[in-house]
Design brief:
Layout lengths: L8 H15 L6 H8 L13 H13 L11 H17 L5 H6 L5 H16 L4 H24 L5 H7 L7 H10 L4 H15 L5
Helix pairs in contact: 1-2, 1-3, 3-6, 4-6, 6-7, 7-10, 8-9
Length: 204
């Protein structure tokens, strides 16, 4: 193994993300990332204390591509734009979805996203408890949808199987599942987000 070379946090994040994209989260060991960088495993500990810290760098790398500057306008349109940008960034690296939950309070990428959401809500007049509930409802929808989209196969075999259930036993489930098979992920995401946004009334 060659002598450890000087690495940047971007080098570490890029290598870890490459491993995750290729091998999934279970394969993203310190050893695998070191191999991707062509350094000894112990060399990584000069830069990060453990795998958790490396995962935080990955989250920051993915969310760092999100443009948080949203043009002025109606607050629901601004929020829709922001969350859509985040979803698209994550869709490019779907295996990182669990990391968004795991490191949502430590990764700068998630903290900056939350701050951007709160800026929009504050400008719309949300304060105190109302702002807390609105922000958490929106982030819960976004993260929940991402998990369903990439780990539950929204229109996959399970949905198709439910659509084939006997209508005599499951009239609404079979009918709804059949309708679900016709929805694209984009249509479902935007439709659900619109429903959440409609339910959040900005204070007068």
């Amino acid at each position: 193994m060659p002598r450890p070379r000087s690495l940047t946090t971007a080098d570490l994040a890029t290598a870890a993300l490459t491993v995750i994209d290729r091998d999934g989260l279970p394969g993203s060991t310190m050893r695998a990332v070191a191999k991707e960088l062509r350094v000894a495993t112990m060399a990584l500990y000069r830069y990060v204390p453990d795998r958790d810290a490396l995962e935080v760098l990955v989250v920051d790398q993915v969310l760092g591509t999100v443009d948080l500057t949203v043009p002025a306008g109606e607050w629901r349109d601004r929020m829709r734009t922001l969350l859509d940008r985040m979803r698209l960034a994550v869709c490019a690296h779907p295996a990182v979805v669990p990391l968004l939950m795991r490191h949502r309070q430590s990764a700068q990428g998630t903290l900056r996203l939350i701050e951007a959401m709160l800026v929009i809500l504050a400008a719309a007049g949300f304060t105190g408890r109302d702002r807390v509930i609105a922000q958490r409802a929106l982030i819960a929808y976004l993260l929940g949808f991402l998990q369903n989209e990439h780990f539950a196969a929204l229109a996959g075999p399970g949905t198709a199987a439910m659509a084939e259930l006997d209508p005599a036993d499951y009239p609404y489930l079979s009918e709804t599942a059949a309708a679900a098979t016709t929805l694209t992920p984009d249509a479902e995401f935007h439709g659900g987000l619109d429903a959440v946004l409609r339910g959040l009334a900005a204070p007068d």
